[in-house]
Amino acid sequence: MPSWFSKPHRSFAPWALLGPNxxxxxxxxxxxxxxxxxxxxxGYEAGHGIIPAWQLANYKKFFFDPxxxxxxxxxxxxxxxxxxxxxxxxFPLAYALSRARGLKRAVLFFCILMPLLTSTVVRTFGWMxxxxxxxxxNHTLLRFHLIAAPLRLMYNVxxxxxxxxxxxxPFMVLSIDTALLNINPxxxxxxxxxxARDTRIFFRITLPLSLPGIVSGCVLVFTGTLSAFVTPTxxxxxxxxxxxxxxxxxxxxxxxxxxxxxxxxxxxxxxxxLFVASLRLTERRRSA
Amino acid sequence: MRIxxxxxxxxxxxYLLAPIFVVMATAFGASAYPLFPPEGLTLKWFHQFWSTPExxxxxxxxxxxxxxxxxxxxxxxxxxxxxxxxYRLPGKTAISAVLLSPIxxxxxxxxxALLIALQRVGLTQTFxxxxxxxxxxxxxxxxxxxxxxxxxxxxSLEEAAQNLGAGWWRTFFRITLPLIRPGILxxxxxxxxxxxxxxxxxxxxxxxxLQTLPIRIFNYVQYSSDPTISAISTCLIAAWLAIGIPxxxxxxxxxxx
Lengths: 288, 257
Prior knowledge:
By secondary structure, chain A is an all-alpha fold. Chain A has helices at 12-39, 57-64, 66-99, 102-117, 120-131, 136-143, 157-181, 185-193, 198-209, 211-227, 230-236, 243-253, 257-287, and strands at 43-45, 49-51. The longest helix of chain A has 34 residues, at 66-99. Helix content of chain B is 78%, strand content 0%.
């Protein structure tokens, strides 16, 4: 580290430089999140508004009311399904990406980056054109007489799974690609020199050593699904609700902010736990 | 086996790129609703985008909001990056984790929290409130890219300037700033794109007077089907690819190193 910035009499300088950012985080993030936590323990009555008394009613309602518990499980199940889909599709692509060199890698990389640079609304709109009853997929399948009636791909969980898998796939591919690139190539050589076959090399070296990338990819996709709002709203509409759409509905349509806040806070805690757990898991692997 | 893997990967790439391709293709189709494969060839939907007042307003609002937020984020983020890379600080890892944390939180959670907080100070449905929210969401990208840029160059250049008698400001403006300009520019471009595309937080805070382009697209798509949306999307995809790809490649190589 250089000396000129770190002179003792200048030690106030970094804090002055960090000041605006810390103030921004305090006023626009920490403060609002604390308010969110506080309000989630308040009551609400239609016509009266928010009732400022400490209570657990919102959390009880979310965890024990069959309707909302169904939404919680539905969201978690969707997260598991999307994660599984992204893992199955992401690994082969990441494997190819990590082995490609030069122009081929640049082209592949571009194909994976392009969706990331396109907004989720636009990509979901594309899926709406493809998945509708008169959409391209049903139209093609009907024309070739592969199905007798259009498949229901919109306004249900199938459509959300298909679209959300596509939206989140780049995160999985890039995570696994990083892990695969970090494997020391001499390990492959050594294994081959010792007579190991391709399948054995894959299961004994490639797969175990790419596990940190798989874990972080899965966490990114799972948490991405938990917090996804645009895709479920546009693809499923009112037919299939997830946690985010319920939060939005409570906040904007029903104005029951305390209940919305309780669901939001639950989601936040769940995601933080997942991130911390995955960090722990990958750290332990690295040190082992 | 190898051919099988190639076919599989081609299919996966098709799945990944299909929606973007479909949106772009339907922007040029002549039918009154987005039809794939498109029939006929026309540019009328692009004209439609430009001649619809509410869409043009939305474009203007989005551009103003993103430019303002990006200006704030670039200054705030560059300061933070300087503090984190160039100084000895206790708990540096923790501080940088905190600075980058707005990316981690689900947008809908931050949106509701900001809605509740801004309501208290009467800033919901105001431009100021939106700028504050967007600045929060995009500053981490600037911090990250400028930090990477700072870590790349040799601090002895700064020391040399100091030894030759230059003061803090002179050293900063003559040495540090020119050297990290590419990083700052990359951060600003990336922050701008992120702000321009932001939907969820804006949706909860904006109100009827401040409908940004993503909100208009979202509402259109939800209640009607119109190739004008394909045309807008195509414009956005083209713009972001043109300015974004060089920056994004850099960002990812930074994140993954």
